[in-house]
Write a structure and sequence with these properties.
- This protein is mainly alpha-helical.
- Helix content is 51%, strand content 11%.
- Strands 2-1-3 form a 3-stranded antiparallel sheet, sandwiched between helices.
- The longest helix has 23 residues, at 148-170.
- It starts with 18 loop residues before the first helix and ends with a helix.
- The model has no long low-confidence stretch (mean pLDDT 78).
Length: 171
């Protein structure tokens, strides 16, 4: 076996986003710009509305509006972690260009929402492997076409599955 060292790569300095995001007539130029800005950062990047506004020429109200637009169109899911005692924790954002990919294939928005939700479940499962006690509440503005009860059930099921995996591993 040979170990491979990885040096700096060009791919570390550019972002690939489906063209459909920038051709989606439901999105304003501001929402497209926010999508691009957030997408340039790696997994685990810490931010908030104030920090995004500081990096751009728009105020916090404009950033909030653009984020709501992205949520409404399925590109962004936001939520907040809850600790073991139900206390509010850090917020989180899950961003994806899956809706643009599905629109390009001629698929309906419900199929895109399902794909986003499946990807979100995988992302939460990975996060729970790092922090098994965390709970994830999803913002009411996210995945509007998915019934709230279904969304909560799937997120809770994902958390329960991750929790049982951690229990089994510790035995």
């Amino acid at each position: 076996m040979t170990a491979i060292g990885r040096g700096p790569m060009a791919a570390d300095n550019f972002t690939q986003i489906h063209n459909g995001v920038f051709r989606d007539p439901r999105l304003s130029a501001k929402a497209m710009g926010i999508f691009a800005h957030v997408s340039t950062h790696r997994e685990g990047w810490q931010t908030n509305v104030e920090m995004i506004a500081k990096g751009m020429q728009d105020g916090e109200a404009a950033i909030k509006g653009a984020l709501k637009e992205l949520e409404h169109c399925g590109y962004l899911v936001r939520g907040q972690q809850r600790g073991e005692r139900g206390r509010r924790g850090d917020g989180w954002m899950f961003i994806t260009d899956l809706p643009a990919q599905y629109r390009a294939l001629g698929m309906d928005e419900e199929a895109a929402d399902e794909a986003v939700l499946a990807a979100l479940e995988l992302w939460i499962a990975a996060r729970l492997q790092r922090d098994p006690g965390a709970r994830h509440d999803v913002s009411p503005g996210s995945l509007r076409r998915v019934p709230r009860a279904d969304l909560a059930r799937r997120i809770n099921g994902c958390e329960a599955a991750a929790s049982s995996q951690v229990s089994a591993a510790s035995r």
